[in-house]
Amino acid sequence: MAVGTLAPAWPVPPEGGWQADDLDSLPDLPEHTQLIDASLVFPCPQSVFHTRALGLIGRGLTSSAPAEVEMIQRFTIDLDAQNRPEPDVVVIRQAALEGFEQTRVAAADVVLVVEVVSPDSASRDRETKPMKYARAKIPHFWRVENERGRAVVHAFELEPTTGTYTSVGIFRDRMKAEAPFPVDLDLTGIKTRRDTAE
Predict the structure, then answer these.
(1) Is residue 102 scored above 90 in pLDDT?
(2) For the segment 118-153, what is each residue's pLDDT rounded down to a tens digit?
(3) What distance in Å separates the CA atoms of residue 13 and residue 36, rounded to the nearest whole number?
(4) Comparing C-alpha atoms, which of 28, 162, 185, 66 is closest to residue 114?
(5) How many CA within 13 A on the CB side of residue 1?
(6) How far apart are CA 64 and CA 181, in angstroms?
(7) pTM confidence score
(8) Strands across the sheet containing 69-73
(9) Phi-psi region of 45 (alpha: psi -120 to 50; beta: other; left: phi over 0)
(10) Range list of H helices, 44-176
(11) Maximum separation of any 2 CA atoms in the chain, in Å
(12) 130 neighbors 165 (Cβ within 8 angstroms)
């Protein structure tokens, strides 16, 4: 670091770590900061694949969702006092939405969470977050992976006896599912004209 330059003023956590309410009150936090295990997780720049996959899944769920639920991208969920993750896509019961200033929703009002895996978030999206979502009893979880430029959706449903997720399918090119509501997604839609010409 050059002489005379100031180091960034990172927030110093209190004893015991941050709490879910702190995300709404800490000044100058980057947009889309998450709270995982009482620690702040800052966002990284998103890849073209991530952005396209997020748009594709979001559009598909919006067009398929029944009136009683709503799809929102990158919206935080209160799992507990020390965990407030922000899934890439969250499907929420319409009755839980209180107004335009709302910044989070209770896990009990979430029907489905979707995580698009990025290199920086791979262990969180494959291990940490699914365990926490299952513990919070969120009934459906989808993980979207980049398989050589193709979107592959791993779909999971909460198994009530064990309280863990069980796989209900791995989808390439097309995803047809009946839960949490009927969907029919063309997963090839993330390609551009240049991709299809190659």
Answers:
(1) yes
(2) 999 999 999 999 999 999 999 999 999 999 889 999
(3) 13
(4) 185
(5) 5
(6) 8
(7) 0.89
(8) 69-73, 89-93, 110-116, 140-147, 150-159, 164-172
(9) beta
(10) 48-64, 122-123, 129-135
(11) 61
(12) yes
